[in-house]
């Protein structure tokens, strides 16, 4: 496993959303209500980017087909077409003044 830094803690604030690419993995770092989340950055339904999704009360809604997922655990909450898997979520790691993720080395 390897630590991949994403951002400095000083840059995070409520309303923060930023996309990161690590190898072929697209990740979305989110902070809402003082809680931080790291999820995959594409909707599992049709791979639409989630950086333009709406986020409200712990729910992210894809702009393309309005699928809704929990940002805390990735659960699919609402499907407008065929059901799909939930979002992948990742544990955040704090190292000194940075936030990041531990991933298998490629």
State the helix count.
0
Strand order of the largest sheet: 2-3-4-9
> What's the SSE pattern?
EEEEEEEEEEE
According to CATH, the homologous superfamily is Rieske [2Fe-2S] iron-sulphur domain
| Outline | globular
Under CATH at level 1, the class stands as: Mainly Beta
Architecture (CATH level 2) name: 3-layer Sandwich
Instruction: Point out poorly predicted stretches.
Output: none
Biggest sheet details: 4 strands, antiparallel
Task: List its traits.
106 residues, mainly beta, Rieske Iron-sulfur Protein, four-stranded antiparallel beta sheet, 0% helix, globular
What can you tell me about this protein's structure?
A four-stranded antiparallel beta sheet has the order 2-3-4-9, with no helix packed on it. It has strands at 2-8, 17-22, 25-32, 35-40, 54-56, 59-61, 68-70, 76-78, 89-90, 92-95, 98-103. The chain has a single domain, classed as 3-layer Sandwich (Rieske Iron-sulfur Protein), CATH 2.102.10. It is built from no helices and eleven strands.
Quick recap of the structure?
This protein has 106 residues and is mostly beta strands.
């Amino acid at each position: 496993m390897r630590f991949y830094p994403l951002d400095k803690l000083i840059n995070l604030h409520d309303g923060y959303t930023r996309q990161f690419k690590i190898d072929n993995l697209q990740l979305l770092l989110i902070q809402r209500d003082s809680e931080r989340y790291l999820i995959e950055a594409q909707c599992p339904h049709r791979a639409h980017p989630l950086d333009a999704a709406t986020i409200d009360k712990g729910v992210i809604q894809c702009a393309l087909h309005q699928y809704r997922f929990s940002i805390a655990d990735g659960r699919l909450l609402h499907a407008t077409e065929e059901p799909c898997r939930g979002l992948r979520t990742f544990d955040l790691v704090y190292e000194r003044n940075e936030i990041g993720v531990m991933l298998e080395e490629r």
